[in-house]
User: Which sequence fits this backbone?
């Protein structure tokens, strides 16, 4: 009887350890990202933002000067996650991949990994701010 209880206890203990190990492993594999988009148009115009990926549409958001919009997600297992945003302000429209796993979740990329990816949107270019306060990384508009 005691032997049966010990076996059940050991089985439960091992099961709990496996669940905890798997959960930590899964969290590391599917790293959480937080994207923040800030309207820094020099003209102080309202910025219309529409972000989406293959399976999720974040909707159309209107940002006044200095306003921000953010969203969270997890990078997929194959590290192919991409969120594309369209931006519009008076007389202009542009698109840009606001998150690309190959650029933003890759330690070998020139801009490195970001867990909180803060983007300042200017007329000439979207710029990913650096956490250390250094010069932001600006990229050309896709269109």
Assistant:
């Amino acid at each position: 009887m005691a032997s049966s209880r010990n076996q059940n206890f050991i089985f439960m203990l091992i099961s709990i350890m496996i669940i905890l190990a798997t959960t930590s492993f899964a969290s590391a594999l599917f790293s959480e990202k937080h994207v923040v988009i800030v309207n820094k148009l020099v003209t102080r115009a309202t910025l219309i933002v529409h972000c989406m990926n293959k399976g999720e549409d974040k909707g159309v958001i209107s940002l006044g000067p200095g306003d921000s919009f953010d969203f969270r997600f997890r990078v997929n297992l194959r590290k192919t996650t991409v969120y594309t945003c369209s931006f519009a302000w008076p007389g202009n429209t542009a698109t840009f991949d606001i998150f690309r796993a190959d650029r933003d979740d890759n330690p070998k990329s020139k801009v490195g990994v970001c867990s909180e990816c803060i983007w300042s949107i200017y007329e000439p270019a979207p710029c990913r701010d650096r956490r250390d306060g250094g010069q932001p990384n600006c990229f050309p508009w896709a269109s």
Helices lie at 2-29, 101-104. The first helix runs from residue 2 to 29. The two ends are 73 Å apart (CA to CA).
